[in-house]
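I'll show a sample.
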Amino acid sequence: MDKSLMEAFARIAGLDKALAEYPEDVAAAFSQAGLHRGIMRAPEDPAAEPWPPMKAGDAP
């Protein structure tokens, strides 16, 4: 990913401090997100969640 594009996305996401202190980690996270985006399929129903909602307590 282009460095300036990655920095812009990080700022939009509110990661200014992380970008300033840990730029390599932010770049690695964006790289991983890009890889996962390529293999994750969007649900057919836009209202559907890709996984069950997270709930506190015992698992069923």
User: Anything to note?
Assistant: Helices lie at 3-12, 16-21, 23-39. The chain has a mean pLDDT of 82. The radius of gyration is 16 Å. The CA atoms of residues 21 and 34 lie 22 Å apart.
